[in-house]
Amino acid sequence: MRRTGPKPYWNTNVARHAGILRAVPEWCGDALDVGCGDGLLARKLTGRAKRVTGLDRSPAMIARARELSAGRPELTFVEGDFLTAALPVEGYDFVCSVSAIHHMDFDPALTRMRELLRPGGTLVVVGLAREASAADWAATIAAAPVVRIVKVLRRAREPEGMPVTGPRMSYGQVRAAARRSLPGVRYRRHVLRRYSLTWTKP
Predict the structure, then answer these.
(1) Can you tell me whether residue 132 is helix, strand or coil?
(2) C-alpha span between 170 and 31 (Å, rounded)
(3) What totals of helices (H) and strands (E) does the chain contain, helices first?
(4) Where are the domains of the chain?
(5) 121 versus 157: which is more confidently predicted?
(6) Secondary-structure class of domain 14-130+160-200 per CATH
(7) Do residues 74 and 28 touch, judged by C-beta distance below 8 A?
(8) How much is the pLDDT for 163?
(9) What's this model's pTM, rounded to 2 decimal places?
(10) How far apart, in whole angstroms, are the C-alpha atoms of residue 94 and residue 100?
(11) CA-to-CA distance for 35 and 80, rounded, in angstroms?
(12) What are phi and psi of 107, to 5 degrees?
């Protein structure tokens, strides 16, 4: 019987994958996906990087990632807390994280991501934040019909067993903290209720 791969799925996190992949340096040797979940993005990154490490603190997610990526030696999955896991300083040309940093202490997590990058490497963080100003709420309300329609049309779903928690920081707090930790960072707020941080290490 022919073996088939995992059934593809879409959600508002997967929607950011294309932009993340475009940010990977052409010369990328080692990439790290922080909060990799079932490894979907890590598997995509193998098309842009020679070696990819995915890290997640959920045993169920790491087990699923390993199952779905069996027989791919360029992929390594590590179970552990990102802030304490044994990862090489300046060991990666590309570091990314999708909707995971709000599960951690923001400033220490961003600092560690910066430290793990080699000079010239790129960091991309996609995250969730809460509305705290009139402008925040206006943007969310304006985008709500689009978000609902897209989710229905794309049959949005989350991977089974994915841990979920709400964001503590507002968009403004995220932007200010990122600018302190990553001078010159590019901050963007996206329609599908996500923000992104893109930064290249000097």
Answers:
(1) coil
(2) 28
(3) 6, 7
(4) 14-130+160-200
(5) 121
(6) alpha beta
(7) no
(8) 73
(9) 0.91
(10) 16
(11) 10
(12) -65, -50
Distance CA(108)–CA(158), nearest Å, equals: 27
pLDDT at 3: 45
70: which residues sit within 8 A by CB, 6+ positions away? none
10 Å CB burial of residue 137 (0-12, 13-18, 19+) is: exposed
Strands 75-79 and 92-98, sheet pairing:
unpaired
Q: 173, 135 in Cβ contact below 8 A?
A: no
Token couple for 143: 């985008």
How far apart are the C-alpha atoms of 107 and 113, rounded to whole Å?
A: 10
Kindly state the average pLDDT of the residues 177-190: 97
Residue linked to tokens 């979907």: 40
Q: Pull the structure tokens for residue 82.
A: 């990102």
- At 195 the three-state DSSP class reads strand
Write out the E strands in 45-177. Answer: 51-56, 75-79, 92-98, 117-127
